[in-house]
Amino acid sequence: MPQRTLLFVLFDGVQSLDVTGPLEVFNGAETHTPGTYRIRTASLDGGPVRTSSGLTLVPDQALGEVPDPHTLLVPGGQGTRSSDPLLTEWLRTHGPRARRLVSVCTGAILLAEAGLLDGRRVTTHWAYCEQLARDHPAVEVDPDPIYVRDGHVSTSAGVTSGIDLALALVEEDLGRQAALVIARHLVVFLRRPGNQAQFSAQLAAQTAQRDPLREVQQWITEHPAGDLTVEALAARASLSPRHFARAFQAETGMTPGRFVDRVRLEHARRLLEDTGDGIEEISRASGYGTPEAMRRAFVRALGTAPAEYRRRFRPASAH
Q1: Residue of 105, 228, 260, 279 marked active site
Q2: What is the pLDDT of residues 73-84, one digit of tens each?
């Protein structure tokens, strides 16, 4: 197996965990299978950089001294908001030469500014998805997944999702067992798929300000198989259905139906991952009623059927 060179691009204002998280994953892979990776870090002039948290990172060399890498990884951080034109130009010139382009968090902004994401489906930290889409209309921005892989370009959401993406790349290079060993060593989950939402249903929606609406939100999460029609939920909040629907969306940022859909999908995924319950039982417990209704929801949201989801993401020890 040929050795793969990994280059981490450093700059002032970089998010330290965007660098160290993936770096620890790839270093763990090199320890597990020596000769797999050669990891390098570089800044524009080869000098130290100060991270957004105040740490100082000392790169191995200057970007101009580094041979074209197999995998080019661009982290995010405050420094991406006012990037150096020289760094953008370096990425524009050298990015296309890499076999794999990877960004963590707002590192996607740097890749987009260099024109390397045009025509690609990508993601970034949820707080900057709207900005990325607005500033770069040729880029298809998906705000939901924790990471997206489109051909040789891989982008991830905020901070810790860079670890998930790095594990996925290691699994591609060395196999699932190697990635599992590394995940266990780092005490992280291997089974977070890229299409997992950046937020759980409860976090994706804002918490309602009024007590009755907050109580309805909580009731939904605790009773996914209950009667969750707008009429039934409105009655719990002692509001008319129309007033309830308007107030719920105004205070949570999503419609009651969208919130219910997310809660049920999250509940079903958790049961598929953590239990041996049958598909029919899970579909009833999650409020879908029938396996076919659950299958349609999974395909629509995740692009895969429940049985395939379980096969891919349930720990081997649970089978």
Answers
A1: 105
A2: 999 999 998 889
